[in-house]
């Protein structure tokens, strides 16, 4: 596996410092499980993060999101990945993510998105992100999905291409709202990827909820 698209420095540092919401952390931890280069970078980032934390008050840190991920991962992703690497079986879905799904790909309960594409929403302990597996048929575009903010997409099998390049297994695309991209699975195989986005806006008023689908907000 040749990984060409890695975790950005700021994302890795946020992860190392425990300031990422659980949803984003799942994508980062899953890339780390697949990428020895980024595991090495994480060690450095944790040292930098530790240095930064020494200068702050402990109560200034918001540990809840990090701890919920840690509780599920129960140990460092790098250590977990090391163990996964020596297993005889070769699961398509690496460990941190497999724990959320309750198994490898055969455990995934797909729901159709139309045009042959399917998704499986993944439940997390927070509601600021939306985490899903997407399965895109070979040669087909990723279904329209609106997101205003950041989107992390990690390829698990197959590949997709968009204006910014080609993304194969292990590659992580980090797109913000300013990027208009229309990813398309490459023609050779279905593409299965993990997609994390900002959660859609939720309105408390039932009136707004009623008009939401009409206005498309
Ligand atoms: Zn990497």
List the helices and strands and how they pair.
Layout: H1 9-16, H2 22-34, H3 36-54, H4 64-73, H5 77-85, H6 95-101, E1 111-114, E2 117-122, E3 129-136, E4 151-157, E5 160-162, E6 165-167, E7 172-175, E8 184-185, E9 191-198, H7 206-215
Antiparallel strand pairs: 1-2, 2-3, 3-9, 4-7, 4-9, 5-6, 5-8
Helix pairs in contact: 1-3, 2-3, 2-5
CATH architecture classification of the largest domain: Orthogonal Bundle
Uncertain segments are: 74-88
- Main structural class: alpha+beta
What is the helix content? 25-40%
Q: State the total count of DSSP E strands.
A: 9
Q: In CATH terms, what is the fold-level topology of the largest domain? A: Arc Repressor Mutant, subunit A
**Bound ligands, each once:** zinc ion
Describe the structure in your own words.
- By secondary structure, this protein is of the alpha+beta class.
- The protein has two domains: 9-100, Arc Repressor Mutant, subunit A; 110-198, Jelly Rolls (Sandwich).
- It contains seven helices and nine strands.
- Strands 1-2-3-9-4-7 form a six-stranded antiparallel β-sheet, covered by helices on one side.
- Helix 2 (22-34) packs across helix 3.
- It is globular and about 50 Å long.
- Bound molecules: zinc ion.
- The site of zinc ion (ZN) has 7 residues, from helix 3.
């Amino acid at each position: 596996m040749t990984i060409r698209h890695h975790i950005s420095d700021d994302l890795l540092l946020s992860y190392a410092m425990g300031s990422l919401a659980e949803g984003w952390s799942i994508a980062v931890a899953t890339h780390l499980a697949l990428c020895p280069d980024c595991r090495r970078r994480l060690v450095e980032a944790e040292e930098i993060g530790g240095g930064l934390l020494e200068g702050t008050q402990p109560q200034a840190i918001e540990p809840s999101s990090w701890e919920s991920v840690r509780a599920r991962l129960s140990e460092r992703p790098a250590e977990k990945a090391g163990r996964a690497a020596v297993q005889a079986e070769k699961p398509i879905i690496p460990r941190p993510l497999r724990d959320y799904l309750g198994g490898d790909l055969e455990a995934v309960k797909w729901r159709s998105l139309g045009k042959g594409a399917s998704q499986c929403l993944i439940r997390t302990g927070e509601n600021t992100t939306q985490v899903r597996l997407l399965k895109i048929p070979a040669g087909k575009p990723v279904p329209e999905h609106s997101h205003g903010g950041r989107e992390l997409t990690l390829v698990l099998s197959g590949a997709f291409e968009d204006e910014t390049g080609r993304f194969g297994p292990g590659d992580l695309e980090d797109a913000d709202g300013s990027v208009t991209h229309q990813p398309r699975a490459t023609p050779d195989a279905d593409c299965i990827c993990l997609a994390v986005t900002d959660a859609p806006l939720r309105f408390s008023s039932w009136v707004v909820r009623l008009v939401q689908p009409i206005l498309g907000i």
